[in-house]
Amino acid sequence: MLAKLDELGIADDTIVMYSTDNGPHYNGWPDGGITPFRSEKNTNWEGGWRVPIFVRWPGKIKPGTVLNDIASHQDWLPTLLAAAGDPDVSAKLLDGHKAGDKTFKVHIDGYNLLPYLTGEAKESPRKFQFYISDDGDILAIRMGDWKVVLMEQRAKQMMCWAEPFVKLRVPKMFNLRRDPFERADENSNTYWDWVIDHVPLIYGMQAIVAQQIENFVKYPPRQKPASFNLDEVLRHLQEASSSGNH
The whole model's pTM is what? Predict the structure, then answer.
C-alpha cells in the first residue's frame, strides 16, 4: 500500500497509521498475541492498554522517530482534523460547533498531537490518562510516569471477563519508567513502604479527578455504559411491573 501511494504521487498528502484497539487477548494464545506487560485486555493493567502505533507522513514526520510520552487513541480525532486544517475543533465543540446541518456541543477527551509528531513540540500535550472499565468505573489514573490503581482485576485468562474488579481501600502505585511491567506489588518486599512514602502523589491526582467530574457536569454522558450483569435487566423488569400496576 505504501508503495502504491508513492507510485500515485500522493504519499506526502496521506497520513498512514497502523495500530490496535487494545492490548493482546492473551487468553487466546497463540492466536491472541503476547506481551511483556502485565495481564491483558479487559483489565486495569498495562498489558490491556499498551498498543503499538506506526505513523507515516513524508515531509512532516521524520522517519525513524520514536516518541515515548503519553498518547491515546482519543487524541487522533483532533490530531487528524488539525492535519486537515482545523486545529481548534476541540475548543469549538466546547461552545457548540455546527457541522453540516447539526450543531455539536461536546467535550472531546483528546489532544492535538500534531506539533509533537512533527517535532515542533518536545512533549506530548497529554499529561494524564484515565483507565476506564466497560462499566464506566475509573480503574486507574496515569500522570506522567506515575500510575495509581484504584480498582484491579485479579482474575486471569477467560475469568477476566467473568470476575468483577476489586475496589482497593488503599490504592496501588507504580512508576512506569522504573517498573513498566507492574511487578513491584507482587515481587518487592518493600513495596508498601515505598507506596506510603509517595502518598502525596495520590493527593496530587485528586485535582485531575475533580476536573474530569466537572467535565461530566458541563457535558453529561449521552448514554449509560453497557451492563455486563443482570442488575439492569432486573431494574427494567421491576420498572415495567410497577408501571403496569397503575
Answer: 0.86
Q: What is the residue-averaged pLDDT of the chain?
A: 90
Q: For cell 506506526, what's the residue?
A: 54
Q: From CA 170, how far away is CA 31, in angstroms rounded?
A: 36
Report how far residue 16's alpha carbon sits from residue 8's, in angstroms, rounded to the nearest whole number: 15
* Tally of structural domains, the chain: 1
DSSP, collapsed to helix, strand or coil, labels residue 57 as coil
Domain region containing 183: 2-70+127-244
pLDDT band at 93 (very low <50, low <70, confident <90, very high): very high
Residue 7 belongs to a domain: yes
CA distance 221 to 42: 21
List for the chain the helix, strand, coil content (%; round to 5).
Answer: 35, 15, 45
What pLDDT score was predicted for residue 241? 72
Is 201 inside a domain boundary?
yes
- Quick one: which of 100, 148, 144 has its CA closest to 126? 144
Total residue length of the chain: 246
pLDDT, tens digit, 9 for 90 and up, residues 8-66? 999 999 999 999 988 888 778 888 778 899 999 899 999 999 999 999 999 999 999 99
In terms of C-beta density within 10 A (0-12 exposed, 13-18 middle, 19 or more buried), how is residue 67 classed?
Answer: middle
Report how far residue 177's alpha carbon sits from residue 232's, in angstroms, rounded to the nearest whole number. 40
Does residue 185 lie within any of the structural domains?
A: yes
In a domain, 162, yes or no: yes
